[in-house]
Amino acid sequence: MKLLRAAFIAAVVLAGCGQAIAQAAPEAGKPVVIDLWPGTPPGGGGPRGPERIGQSGTGVGAVSNISRPRIEVYKPARPNGAAVILIGGGGYFRIGIGHEVMPTAKWLAALGVTPVVLYYRLPADHWPAVAPFQDAQRALRVLRAHAAELGIDAKRVGVLGFSAGGNLAGIAETRFADRFYPAVDAADGQSARPDFAGLIYPVVSLQKPFDTTRSRRELSTQADAVQAYSVELHVSHDTPPTFLAQAADDPIANIGNSLVMFDALRKNGVDAELHVFDKGGHGWGLGDPGSAVAAWPRLFAAWARRAGFFSSVDTGPFAMPAAAPRAPAADDAGPDDN
């Protein structure tokens, strides 16, 4: 994780979201960092001490103890205007930055898509259950508020979530009209609706029989969490086009999660594409080279191009992404969503 992060040291830190970006063209490879909130984040609570980065097992590179919710925006060498907010999984007790998010960010940047990494607050860190949903909604508005400065087309902003991050992305795409927090500045006049969404081995439902995940347990501090954060219950005809990918043998998030989401999307007339792989398990990120699940990035990019969100066909060396080495199965904190 230290090697990954060394290449992505922040070039710009903003004291507040309404503040103009200090550098129009950050040094190549370094992100523009934008704090989501101009002051103390809403809701109260939160952890003490610095952020923690996992050092072992499937937790290598995973970030927790987050008290400063923010986005990191990476500028591609040849940007095409599209942007994707990347939301790592981790059962709402950590965020899979090293294994899931950063490899995907590098792949998207190679396609000319601007990757935006979301560091959101975690209920396991003593934030209220609504905190991550506040952060995701705010991230979409803040990104659009800075779209011109960042070279982003505000009408081609998507979300891509893994595991618990798929739950967060799913609520962002279905409950965009609900105010999760009072407006704090002009950025909150922007739309919180993503233009498209990708849900990768997602935790969609908190309802039975899918209520066995770590995500469900961490969100249970809110009395109505099952109703509030079961994504399939909030799908409407206004939900943006959605791509889903999951393995049938997923031991953490039952394949039924993707099936109920796809069914809800189709019943509401929403453009949707679902890919179910026979094997793959959970938490594969970009997927091991040669595995069935490693096909999802190309399938997602092709889907996004057909829908007009990505532009031009990528023929460069990164068109078929190589996955980061698979982390060991053992982990001192257990699977992301057990």
UniProtKB/TrEMBL annotation:
Keywords: Hydrolase, Signal. Residues 1-24 form the signal peptide. The keyword Hydrolase applies. Residues 89-284 form the Alpha/beta hydrolase fold-3 domain. Residues 38-59 are annotated as: Disordered. The keyword Signal applies. InterPro entries: AB_hydrolase_3, AB_hydrolase_fold, GDXG_lipolytic_enzyme. This is Acetyl esterase/lipase. It comes from Luteibacter jiangsuensis.
